Amino acid sequence: MSLNNLLKEDITNPLDCRIEGWRIDNGHVKYLLSCRRRVYPIKKWYLQKRYSDFFQLNESLKGYHSYLRLPGKKYFGNTNEAFISERLLHLQSFLNTIFSLPILYGNKNVWEFFGLEKGAIGDYKYWVLVLMRNQTKFHDDDSYFVECGWRGNKINYFYNSSKKGLKMLSWLPFGIDSLKNEKISNINEILEFFSSLKLPFIYPVDSRWVDEKGIGCMRNVNCKGSLRDFVWNVKKPLDNFLHKYGSHKKCISLQLNDIKVIGRQVLETLIFFYSINYPFTDIHCGNIKTNDKVFYLFDIEFTLCGHSSIHRAGMLRSNSVKTIQDMMVFSFGNCLYEMFGGGIFFPDKNPDEGYKNLPDEAFQIFRSIFEPSNNTLPSLQQLFDNIFFDIPEYKKFENIDNVDVPKNILTTLEKLKISIESRLKEDREKLYQGGCSIQKDSYRLDKLINYSRSVPSHCDDECSEKMAN
């Protein structure tokens, strides 16, 4: 997939992948996979994978081995038909589990396994290294790429500046909701505007820029990490994301008063963003840093890249999420749940399971978000005014109620807001239609095996037509 094509992918949309059959080739079993997006699943492609490919994928998803439960190796009798049939079922379960969790199917190694990456991440890394040449004096021996975040197409480059200490260059390509027809200068104007505000709740960056491929920023490395690192008791914030927050680890709850203070500060910030049309929906504990009970949001610059929130899959499931404000509220609910030690994702498919981790006084907040009456979510202001966040000693941020936003910036942000809302509605409709289509679709195993030798990684129209007959 070319660099431009990758930008059309939304990594928060999972695949529907089925192991349709198998064949033996030179003494090795090859499993035959058919794949397509669950959202608008028109395009289908086909793959052939050996058990060793599944094993390597499982090894790359460290921290989730016990959760994924890949079937073990077998050195003798592994071409026995009964054994292969049983292993196929376990491998299918392995794939289904991956596509049940956004932090797994958003991983770049999963992309590579399913043929969605095609060298684009390597191209991005090369681009970041080119950008680094514009930076003055850094030590090559102390610089390297890190995979500390969940988003597979985001590049993080850690380096040691000779004068300014530890730094992180973060860069993200433009995505599916980006302002495709806007000039780079217009997007850069928005970033410059935010920089000029000197907002107290935004984590400072040394520099930020827009280029023809995406947005980048340079900032100091906070050795304490994010709020997520704190609740998960992470000692090395720059470690691999799946290793830091693996299924073998548990997160702890913050003190109740700290949750109220941080939650109120986050809500106040989101109310400000919403008032100026800034569609920051990727709210989670990994995007929050704290210092003396004052919080700072970071990575807000990447909102303009047009990528979906980590919680978008849950948003698609909820018919209550329709607007940017709804998306903010839904993400905030998940963020609040993690502060209570519940985990990264609130179990919206089974809310009663999530309520078990919460104190009684927080129950109504979560129910209003994940089981809203009349299918209507509370507004940000309604959450802010809730008695749960009523803190007598709390002081509001100063100088954020009277910000004068240039009209052209408001207009540009309104376009981005409308684009995100429209695609959410369209994807929800496509997801439903796709579900019906997937249920009806069934390929005959014998024909799939007959044509498997000529099936490329991405099936062409002629091959698809043969297999459908």
Automatic annotation (TrEMBL):
PROSITE patterns: PX. Its main location: cytoplasm. This is PX domain-containing protein. Pfam families: PX. One of its GO terms (cellular component) is late endosome. It comes from Strongyloides papillosus (Intestinal threadworm). Keywords: Cytoplasm. Residues 9-121 form the PX domain. One of its GO terms (molecular function) is phosphatidylinositol binding. GO terms for biological process: early endosome to late endosome transport; endosome to lysosome transport; protein targeting to lysosome. InterPro entries: Kinase-like_dom_sf, PX_dom, PX_dom_sf, SortingNexin/PXDomain-PKLike. It is found in: Cytoplasm. The keyword DNA-binding does not apply.
